[in-house]
Q: What sequence folds into this?
């Protein structure tokens, strides 16, 4: 199914100018299409570079998807690592998300005038039992509820109608969600939906001049403070229920990345590498969200 819905041509054209060319002196590179397919397999199955190499040896279905002829053509873990680094160093991950969204837009799943903004914590190893003897300095701890978390945050902007992710920003976990609001907007929103953690967003200096209808969830303490005999209470609770039903769409891409793709912990050290991976994970999550419509369009084209 993913073979049919991934916009291979557009993504390969994006990477091709940066990829080693065939015919040059030295070791000949693997076909670009093969390396991109292997990279996506890594994201879907949460595999490290060595585990990806091993999986290609063990699983015939993966070799077929990667368009590998046999066991003697499987790339080693260093080759897989070098391809990932190419995407990171050339800044291609964020562009791949943009390419996927452009493809979805052409298919009729374009972004509308509303955005849902939210963030989630991605855990990082807190152990100091490594060669540096310290935790990743780019990661930090933050308190959520009564529990402390160490890692980073994925801040995303999601289209309020389609549920597709249009913007991804990675920060340390201790960065306040509201500070990244301007960064995750695409600039054409008329309405933005946020949870109560973003209270006061409209007063931020970088957002004062935006003509946006800010739909921020009311804090539970304020709702509880409304007298029971007040007629305003039921009305406000219904309004909050409507806003919550819209904001619920932001949980779908988080669910896909964390549960379907099993990305609950960062794989690398540093924000740059992990943010690059998040761009690709959410690009692939968008394809999962739109998969049913894309497969229907594909079958219509085939017939």
A:
């Amino acid at each position: 199914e993913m073979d049919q819905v991934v916009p291979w041509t557009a993504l390969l054209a994006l990477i091709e100018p940066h990829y080693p060319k065939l015919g040059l002196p030295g070791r000949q590179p693997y076909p670009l299409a093969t390396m991109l397919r292997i990279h996506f397999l890594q994201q879907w199955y949460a595999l490290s570079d060595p585990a990806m190499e091993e999986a290609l040896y063990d699983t015939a279905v993966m070799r077929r998807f990667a368009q590998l002829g046999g066991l003697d053509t499987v790339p080693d873990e260093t080759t897989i690592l070098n391809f990932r680094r190419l995407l990171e160093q050339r800044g291609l991950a964020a562009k791949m998300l943009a390419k996927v969204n452009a493809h979805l837009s052409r298919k009729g799943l374009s972004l509308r005038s509303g955005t849902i903004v939210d963030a989630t914590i991605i855990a990082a190893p807190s152990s100091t039992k490594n060669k540096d003897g310290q935790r990743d300095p780019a990661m930090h701890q933050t308190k959520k509820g009564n529990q402390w978390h160490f890692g980073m945050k994925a801040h995303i902007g999601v289209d309020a109608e389609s549920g597709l992710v249009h913007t991804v920003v990675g920060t340390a976990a201790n960065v306040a969600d509201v500070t990244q609001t301007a960064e995750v907007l695409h600039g054409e929103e008329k309405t933005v939906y946020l949870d109560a953690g973003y209270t006061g967003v409209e007063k931020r200096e970088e957002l004062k001049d935006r003509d946006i209808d800010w739909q921020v969830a009311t804090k539970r303490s304020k709702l509880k403070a409304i007298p029971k005999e007040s007629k305003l209470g039921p009305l406000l609770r219904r309004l909050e229920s409507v806003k919550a039903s819209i904001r619920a769409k932001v949980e779908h891409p988080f669910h896909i990345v964390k549960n379907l793709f099993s990305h609950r912990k960062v794989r690398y050290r540093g924000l740059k590498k992990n943010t690059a991976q998040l761009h690709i994970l959410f690009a692939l999550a968008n394809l999962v969200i739109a998969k049913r419509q894309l497969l229907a369009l594909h079958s219509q084209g085939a017939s």
